[in-house]
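Q: What does the assembled structure look like for these inputs?
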Amino acid sequence: MRMIIWTLVGAAVGFFGMYAALSIDFKAGFLPIGFELNIVLIAITLLLFVFIAVSSAQMKKKAGLTLTGVDEDERDMWQYKKFSDLNLCNTIALIVSIVAIGVAIITDQPAWLLLTSGGILLLSIVFSMLVPGLMKAVYPDRELPSASEKNFAKKLLDASDEGERFVMLQGYYKTFNTMNLSLIIALMLFILYSVGTGDSQLFSIFIVGLILIVTNAQYLLTIRNK
Amino acid sequence: MRTRLKELRARDGLNQTELAKLAKVSRQTISLIEREEFVPSLLIAKRIAHIFDETIECIFIFDEEEL
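A:
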């Protein structure tokens, strides 16, 4: 009974929400602010690069210290957290730089801005190849794969112990659920945007739909075939 | 499951990193076991028991309803 009520409430909210969205004439054009947006995105990426460079240097310096007792454990904890922060910043930098070059191309920005965005993207790729290598500096005793090796992600998973895999599994599972929900919301927003503005987002809708099908199929087939 | 890992580490003067190296696992795994957030495999439990010269049951204590 409760489920039926919630379904009806959901349907009513969806109907009136869509009705309201259709009646509003909105435009979310990035063309007039393309230049400023590009500059902001490049600035964010550069700030992330500075953080990555400074943190890498700090990690290498700390890794060289000879510590004992609680200090050794605290150093390891600090490095573990710092490495996670670095990886996150690196991923954000890569994504933001891809968005930046996308904005530059689509909003037809001057050549120098396009080149700068391209350079920033290249730097992000270089950083994303260098950051995993830091693990070797932090854990010199462990047999970890090199970032340039084929199937690096799989080899890294194989090199992890059961506690690390347990933590990774929790993270991956949360991420998978968040990703599923976010992409479904994104689909709704694309439809709403297409209807509201008249600018077709069908290509994005197909791509997001395809990603949802492929990732869910991959997950379920992995479980099914075990 | 409760664990006496922290107490035994203190007894033998080992930090988490040193115990991790002896048990051939990461410090994160030792920390997870100590915080009772993760139940180790039989192999790791055996290695830890061997390091402290204790039995597995003496280090990892299960409640009756867990068994």
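Residues 26-150 of chain A form one domain.
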